[in-house]
Design goal:
Blueprint (H helix, E strand, L loop, with lengths): L1 H26 L6 H8 L3 H7 L3 H25 L5 H18 L1 H9 L10 H21 L5 H22 L2 H4 L6 H14 L2
Helix pairs in contact: 1-2, 1-4, 1-6, 4-5, 4-6, 4-7, 5-6, 5-7, 5-8, 5-10, 7-8, 8-10
Length: 198
């Protein structure tokens, strides 16, 4: 009996993640409502909170899938990249831009998730982010072989923040004043300039 209960719980969990993933992709994170999820899943609203502590936990589960899809896209882009470490950084950053442009609502949900001040993300969530950071840190360690681990960690996050900011503002042309066609050029200019200083 306990096994059946756990099986139903696991099935409902996957159903809810799938529904939430689609709703976020189509309508954005702000449109996610427990009542709508329950109606589509065919369950009571309370059943959602038997599976997830709150909607934030559900969004984190959706975001883990989004991180994974982003990682697959970046890895695919890198598989055809030249051996030059700087160009690898450029190619992966441009792949990040393409993913963001093609999946804007899901991509924005990665960073718009609501958490209490000072509350850390779950370990599995940080691991997904860590995998993405490793795509940056590996070529950086080639470009800057004399930097210690702490510097490389900070540089990795600084480059990610720079590229993320370019993409975030660039996708809102009214704010950035830059056409979408020029975002990839901006990314390449910044990354090549940074790595040229090595």
């Amino acid at each position: 009996m306990a096994r059946q209960t756990e099986s139903r719980r696991a099935a409902l969990r996957e159903t809810l993640i799938g529904i939430a993933e689609r709703k976020i992709a189509n309508d954005g994170l702000a449109a996610l409502r427990a009542r709508d999820l329950a109606t589509e899943a065919g369950c009571a609203v309370g059943a959602i909170y038997n599976v997830f502590g709150d909607l934030t936990e559900l969004v984190l589960a959706v975001n883990a899938r989004t991180f994974h899809r982003l990682g697959v896209d970046v890895a695919a882009a890198l598989s055809e990249a030249p051996a030059d470490a700087t160009e690898q950084l450029v190619i992966m950053a441009q792949a990040y831009h393409r993913f963001a442009a093609d999946n804007q609502n899901s991509w924005r949900a990665l960073f718009d998730v609501d958490r209490a001040p000072g509350e850390a993300a779950p370990d599995w969530y940080l691991q997904e982010m860590g995998r993405l950071f490793s795509y940056i840190s590996d070529p950086l360690s080639v470009v800057f072989p004399d930097r210690d681990a702490e510097d490389l960690t900070l540089m990795t996050r600084a480059l990610f923040s720079s590229v993320h900011g370019i993409v975030l503002l660039g996708l809102d042309e009214a704010s950035a004043g830059v056409s979408a066609d020029n975002i990839d050029r901006m990314i390449a200019i910044v990354l090549r300039q940074v790595t040229d200083s090595s």
